[in-house]
Design a protein that fits this description.
The complex is a heterodimer of chains A (about 500) and B (about 325).
Chain A: E1 6-16, E2 19-30, E3 33-38, H1 45-52, E4 60-65, E5 68-70, H2 75-80, E6 83-86, H3 98-102, H4 113-126, H5 142-155, E7 160-164, H6 172-187, E8 191-195, H7 199-205, E9 208-213, E10 216-222, H8 228-236, E11 254-262, E12 270-275, E13 279-283, H9 290-297, E14 305-311, E15 318-320, E16 330-333, H10 337-341, H11 348-353, H12 369-382, H13 399-413, E17 417-421, H14 429-444, E18 448-452, H15 456-462, E19 465-470, E20 473-479, H16 485-492
Parallel strand pairs in A: 3-8, 3-9, 6-7, 7-8, 13-18, 13-19, 16-17, 17-18
Antiparallel strand pairs in A: 1-2, 1-4, 4-5, 9-10, 11-12, 11-14, 14-15, 19-20
Helix pairs in contact in A: 4-5, 8-16, 12-13
Chain B: H1 18-43, H2 50-75, H3 83-101, H4 104-128, H5 133-152, E1 156-157, H6 162-168, E2 171-172, E3 176-177, H7 178-196, H8 198-208, H9 210-215, H10 220-246, E4 249-250, H11 258-268, H12 280-299, H13 304-330
Helix pairs in contact in B: 1-12, 2-7, 2-10, 2-11, 2-12, 3-4, 3-5, 3-10, 4-5, 4-10, 6-10, 7-8, 11-12, 11-13
The chains are: A alpha/beta (about 500), B mainly alpha (about 325).
Amino acid sequence: MAEQITLEIKNISKSFPGVRALDHVSIEARGGEIIGLIGVNGAGKSTLMNILGGVFPQTEGEIRINGQEIQIKSPQDAEKYGIGFIHQEPVMFQYMTVAENISVSRLHGKVNYKELNAAARKHLEQMNCDIDPRKRVADLPIGERQMVEIARALSSGGKILLFDEPTASFTDKEKQRLFEVIRELKKAGSCIFFISHFLDEVEELTDRTIVLRDGKVVINGKTADISRKDILRNMIGGEMAKVDNEEERKFEKVLMRVDNLTAGDKPDHVSFDLYEGEVLGIWGLMGAGRTEILRALYGLDKADEGTVSLDLGDGRGLQAIPFARMSEYCGYVTEARHDDGCLLPWSVWENMSAPNLKNYKRNRLFLDFNRQKEESRVYCKRLNVKTPSVFTKVSTLSGGNQQKVIMAKWLMKKPKVFFIDEPTRGVDVGAKAEIQRMVRELAAQGSSCLVVSSEIEELSAVCDRVVILNRGRLTGELLKKEIDKDTLMHLCV
Amino acid sequence: MGKKEAPPTGTAAVKHSLTEKLKNENAALILLVIVSMIVFGITVPNFMTVGNIFNLLVQASTIGLPAIGLTFILITAGNDLSLPTNMACSAILGCAVMQKTQNTFLGVIAILAIAVCFGVINGFSVAKLKMVPMIVTLAIQTLNVGISEFYTQGTSVGGLPQSFYRIFSSSLFGVVPVSVIIFLLTAFVMHQILTKTVFGRELFQTGINEKAARVNGVNTTRILFVIYVIGGFMAGISGVLMAARLKAAGTSMGPVSAFNNIICACVLGGASVWGGKGTILGTLIGSIVMAIITNVMNLLNVNFFVTYVVKGIIIILVCYLDVLRNQEKER
């Protein structure tokens, strides 16, 4: 083998406000090696890759390539040092050709398309890829776009290639093709980092496995020597935290029945029952289709197949409800507060009454604003929303309080079913406990909740039952007492 | 207006909500109107006569009625370039019906119905087919001009029944023109709808954050559709009043350039092309300001083409005002 590239990462640390994303991470790697990098969401994988790729400037520690210390301050620097970053969702110029995309950082002045296309073809052939360089990227399937992205990294002399969850949206065939390419690259002497949520992929492809947890390296060894059980245990860290030892509750009446729900490739024929007064968790890794289930059920995304029925309490039992009308009976606490949760320029009371205007009418035509304000005040007090008054703009409140305003607006509507997506993401610890308690209270009062969360502690604290989702399909179901990390991880990877 | 209420915790500072700010902006505009009235009253001959003031209000109603419709549309960050041409086109076709039948009632209904039809086409294209408002309404504008010019062949449709003129171009007590009364009444009703009904609140939700509005259960497609229909209806009312005043309907009633006055009135009144903002009171005052500018230039015998230059400059200034306000909002 020709000269071997070596990469040394020493004592890299990175902090974000409130979080230590990387804590003295040291890794050595050399050409001809595939390193699998795994860890739960927030373990620091992406932060590490973003530092190597020049997305986040490196602040602490040192990086050496071939023994020489380097400073990566920008993606251009990374490219200069031969580091290629292949993103999960290929970032490309859709309406430019494949060749143009591959050479995009070197396009200026008069472009010689003959040379450009020839160079692109060379790099694509290196990967046994026969994509026409003159095609527009927009016309390629996602798997081929990934190939173009890899070719782009190679064309700038990339010897260290970072793959950030490249297979997340791949079909099986595309995945196998990618793996072949990666093995080819390895033979050619590249040093490859492969991030994935899927343990089988890491086992199949990599030579070495590195597990990150809370910004630290907890496992670093030959993939063949490490058991899956070790990996799982170390990903999560120790035993499970103690949760409230509430009695197992009995449920009898089905409130909502979901049958064969399918929307695009995820969710994929999902069926489950939600009982009255039950908190049902949906657990799965990122990209498993958790949010997509809620969105399809709520009528925000178009469902291709499947039905949902609700027991409206009028003695007629379960009735099929069109998805478009589900918002009349359900409340939806969304994952992205700023994106689709609150109306930021509006005040607290305006936000709290927004989904429920029909119930605040003074007469047939006009709204009763005083009642809206009064009830908002009551709910501010009940949920302990820290705001100077109900006239305060929601944009000035903290994340936790915004989340409480969102919870309050649905509590005021009193829906049959609550959809709750990552209720405590980006919320401080105090508000987190309050919000979790609130979910339990809802259930105690007879409402049913469908909760999506990436935190196992959260699910075991609030849920009576958890269904497990893997790539759009339900793969298992656990009762409260069975919820534990090992089982969850086994069912979802 | 149901919004006067002492805040519970006695914090006066937080009461300066969005509505408060808009009211202040309106106060500034009203002040501008009064000052300019006084200045022009002194400097421009014939400005401060009763006849001219009502003339001015009639002009304001021609701008203001479609501007009320446009305010609803601007709140969703949409646009309707076809408002003035729709006004002319529906007036021409409706007046043709009136001329043939000599039936005032039928004619007025025809004008309104045709105007609403164009609104429905706009609304359907934007809400259901997800087309870009600017392009759709530009297409309808072109279509309107084509129909109008083709039907009238450069003349105008006259010979309408006397009762039509008597009803719509008379003056109450001999001084207050009916068109002004209808304009103010419409503004009052639309203000109530915008500020006090479920529809109005859902409209603002759609304009501020369409995704959040959908999560809140707002049928945003329906909202988007309805506002363009309202826009068409407003153009129709304006068309009825103008045809009665001119005693005929012709293409000159709603030239393409009239849109400038309409959008200026809205933006001066606090609406924003970025969406999420707008009041009927503001638009009302905005249209009076635009009418004053037109009126004064008429009285001063400013060259017709020079008025275009002046209005072009005003539009640029008003657009910049919109940008400034928006930056303030983001801060």
